[in-house]
Write a structure and sequence with these properties.
The complex is composed of two ATP-binding proteins (UgpC), two transmembrane proteins (UgpA and UgpE) and a solute-binding protein (UgpB). The chain is mostly helical. It is built from 13 helices and no strands.
Length: 277
């Protein structure tokens, strides 16, 4: 009886996982399929195989979207944001985990509120403030906005990792003559590195795909990000859907490759954070 139940449970699990995999992979497969077709073929039947593979879609997409420049802009913006969020978030999380805070529930509520608050509430004040300071089209200034948006999530996740590290390890390092800064950099950060990697991957994904802030504060042609330049490929009255599909594939490919390469560490980091919390 138990064997039958276990097999039934296993079968149901496989069915659910199969449905989930199909739901996740079907849009990507459809994107790859249509990136190799001409626009008339896509309009005729987007699910059909291409009659002639159109590799030139990728060359035209790369040139028309100016990805050689916009990819660099996105990479710089993403790298700056990851660096700022990981450095400030890890330091803040360490202090919050090690100091006894009587109003920790208020701090938690504040972090949750800032995480869920829509950016549209602050967009106009930020824009006028940045314009007054001459910070429009400044990549570093935009990375500061991203840091303010994503830091609460990073702090809450890393807080659970720092809490899980026994205090005896820090005390032993201090007894051996290490300073508090050395304990943080040389002892604590290596121990919570899975959490930092998880934060870096998630923040990198958000920063690379972010559109609203990037299109608002980076308006010069030489400052556009890859996502914004992809959006501009679509015309008002007509669009080359084959080129657009190829451009979309080019934009998502770096993130997909990075996630696939680091998926094990990412899953371990997320699972570790949930268990340690």
């Amino acid at each position: 009886m138990r064997l039958v139940e276990s097999r039934a449970t296993l079968a149901v699990s496989y069915v659910v996982l199969g449905i989930g995999a199909f739901t996740a992979l079907f849009p990507i497969a459809l994107l790859v399929l249509n990136a190799l077709k001409s626009a008339p073929e896509i309009l005729l039947n987007p699910l059909a195989l291409p009659q002639t593979i159109r590799w030139d879609n990728f060359a035209r997409a790369w040139k028309d979207a100016r990805f050689s420049q916009t990819f660099v802009n996105s990479a710089v913006l993403t790298a700056l944001t990851i660096f700022l969020v990981c450095t400030t978030g890890s330091a803040s999380a360490y202090v919050l985990a090690r100091k006894k805070i009587k109003r920790w529930k208020i701090v938690t509520f504040y972090l949750l509120a800032t995480t869920t608050a829509p950016i549209q509430l602050f967009l106009f004040p930020l824009y006028f403030g940045f314009a007054k300071l001459g910070l429009i089209n400044n990549v570093f200034a935009v990375s500061l906005v991203y840091t303010a948006i994503y830091s609460p999530f990073a702090i809450m996740l890393l807080h659970t990792y720092f809490q899980a590290v026994p205090r005896e390890i820090e005390e032993a390092a201090l007894v051996d003559g290490a300073t508090h800064w050395q304990v943080f950099v040389r002892v604590m950060l290596p121990m919570v590195s899975p959490g930092i990697l998880t934060v870096a991957l998630i923040i990198g994904l958000y920063s690379w795909n972010e559109f609203l802030i990037a299109t608002t504060f980076l308006q010069r042609q030489d400052k556009l990000t890859a996502v914004v330049s992809f959006f501009l490929l679509s015309g008002q009255y007509s669009s080359d859907w084959g080129e657009i599909m190829a451009a979309a594939l080019i934009v998502v490919l770096p993130i997909v490759v990075l996630f696939v390469a680091l998926q094990r560490r990412f899953i371990e980091g997320m699972a570790g954070g949930s268990v340690k919390g």
